[in-house]
């Protein structure tokens, strides 16, 4: 059977970044990346595709072009993990064994979890920025909207980029204001959760936009069924007392954020925590029971926000700790991850509220306040989102260059 010193499962934001980060530190390292897809996506760009700013094709590259030189690409899906025997089972029955394993297959979008949704996606006014092929349909619907009811949904947490459901809504409302159709529109945000945004400090500036656009907020509303041709949607409503009922809404357009869960290959393996996510130490990103296993990205069970920004900061932490454990890196201290994640909230075309925070919802702004005040919508943050972050993604993060991701070290004092 095939064997490598390091096997990475998943060639997405996290998998490619960590491969590049390790090779930058240790050229010649024997790495294999298990990844079935031909295409790698810059998913954070999909919000701007749905907002008519990017073309969908701006957000994709051939997988072959992002696999770092020196890494072997095993073009197959992983089907299971056997951490006792240090092997990964591949679809089709082959196995790959490893000295160190990095688990980074992202999360699962569960489109089938909403009855009737799959049949109607991409038609009947039903769209989602959570898929490459559907984000352009969002923009088509927004441009063609002449008034009526527009619904935006958010499923239960955790989801990737928790701000994305409302980003789609704000950009749509901004466009409708420009087209002069917002006043004739009824816009409703139906959120399974109890709050607009998980980090409380950002709620007041977001509420200003909710009010400006005249959006109705409905918390505790979880989309369970949709009938595209009839243009109706049903939500399970759970009250504070825990009692639940079902309510119906008619719509002219609906932007759906699908339910999300850990990937089955992790849930059904010994690597999962109780909730099914990868059971990682939140600081070192090493598995809590299998010290030769590490992980990063959306699959992580640590309590950080599931964002590419988080993966950018996690990659060097995994790279340093893994190489150090292998004896391949002279490094007195372990690297630690502080839970950093970021969510550039596109509140209008040309302005972003740049939410950046770590574990426990602690705000962690990267920039001085005079440049970007994270609690205020700013043009500079929009330019960062539109122009700078995609460049950082393709040219730094995926290439093992880490100007914005220098890992912190666990000093002996801080380890107490
Ligand atoms: P992914 O990048 O999703 O990659 C997972 C990879 O694993 C894929 O290539 C997949 O093919 C592969 N894979 C899956 N199963 C297997 C298997 N069994 N075997 C082998 N390989 C497998 N983040 C931000 O930082 N800022 C934003 O503004 C932002 N906005 C977003 C907006 C939208 C609409 C969406 C959808 C996401 C957004 N994100 C944003 C989130 C960001 O895209 C993800 O957090 C990030 O891509 C996670 O990286 P990952 O490597 O864990 O997963």
Automatic annotation (TrEMBL):
<keyword id="KW-0874">Quinone</keyword>
<keyword id="KW-0560">Oxidoreductase</keyword>
<dbReference type="GO" id="GO:0070221">
    <property type="term" value="P:sulfide oxidation, using sulfide:quinone oxidoreductase"/>
</dbReference>
<dbReference type="GO" id="GO:0016787">
    <property type="term" value="F:hydrolase activity"/>
</dbReference>
<dbReference type="GO" id="GO:0048038">
    <property type="term" value="F:quinone binding"/>
</dbReference>
<keyword id="KW-0809">Transit peptide</keyword>
<feature type="domain" description="FAD/NAD(P)-binding">
    <location>
        <begin position="4"/>
        <end position="124"/>
    </location>
</feature>
<keyword id="KW-0285">Flavoprotein</keyword>
<keyword id="KW-0274">FAD</keyword>
<protein>
    <submittedName>
        <fullName>Sulfide:quinone oxidoreductase</fullName>
        <ecNumber>1.8.5.-</ecNumber>
    </submittedName>
</protein>
<dbReference type="GO" id="GO:0071949">
    <property type="term" value="F:FAD binding"/>
</dbReference>
<dbReference type="GO" id="GO:0070224">
    <property type="term" value="F:sulfide:quinone oxidoreductase activity"/>
</dbReference>
């Amino acid at each position: 059977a095939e064997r490598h010193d390091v096997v990475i499962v998943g060639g997405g934001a996290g998998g490619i970044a960590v491969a590049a980060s390790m090779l930058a530190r240790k050229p010649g390292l024997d790495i294999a990346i298990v990844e079935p897809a031909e295409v790698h996506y810059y998913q954070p760009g999909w919000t701007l595709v749905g907002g008519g700013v990017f073309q969908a094709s701006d957000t994709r590259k051939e997988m072959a072009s992002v696999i770092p030189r020196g890494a072997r690409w095993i073009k197959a899906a992983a089907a299971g993990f056997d951490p006792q025997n240090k092997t990964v089972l591949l679809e089709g029955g082959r196995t790959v064994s490893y000295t160190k394993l990095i688990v980074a297959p992202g999360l699962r979008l569960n489109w089938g979890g909403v009855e009737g949704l799959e049949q109607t996606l991409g038609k009947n006014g039903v769209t989602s920025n959570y898929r490459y092929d559907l984000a352009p349909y969002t923009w088509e619907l927004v441009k063609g909207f002449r008034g009526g009811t527009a619904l935006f949904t958010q499923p239960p947490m955790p989801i990737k980029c928790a701000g994305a459901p409302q980003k789609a809504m704000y950009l749509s409302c901004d466009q409708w204001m420009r087209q002069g159709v917002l006043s004739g529109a009824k816009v409703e945000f139906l959120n399974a959760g109890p709050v607009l945004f998980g980090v409380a400090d950002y709620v007041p500036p977001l509420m200003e936009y909710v009010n400006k656009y005249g959006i109705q907020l409905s918390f505790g509303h979880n989309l369970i069924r949709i009938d595209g041709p009839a243009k109706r949607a049903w939500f399970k409503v759970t009250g504070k007392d825990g009692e639940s009922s079902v309510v119906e809404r008619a719509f002219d357009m609906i932007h759906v954020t699908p339910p999300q869960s850990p990937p089955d290959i992790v849930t059904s393996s010994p690597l999962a925590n109780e909730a099914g996510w990868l059971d990682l130490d939140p600081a070192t990103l090493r598995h809590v029971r299998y010290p030769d296993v590490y992980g990063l990205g959306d699959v992580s069970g640590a309590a950080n926000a599931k964002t590419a920004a988080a993966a950018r900061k996690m990659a060097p932490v995994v790279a340093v700790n893994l190489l150090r454990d292998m004896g391949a890196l002279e490094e007195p201290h372990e690297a630690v991850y502080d839970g950093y994640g970021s969510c550039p909230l596109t509140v209008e075309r040309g302005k972003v509220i740049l939410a950046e925070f770590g574990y426990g919802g602690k705000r962690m702004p990267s920039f001085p306040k005079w440049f970007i005040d994270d609690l205020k919508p700013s043009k500079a943050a929009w330019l960062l989102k539109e122009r700078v972050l995609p460049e950082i993604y393709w040219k730094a993060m995926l290439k093992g260059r880490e100007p914005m991701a220098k890992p912190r070290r666990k000093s002996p004092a801080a380890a107490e």
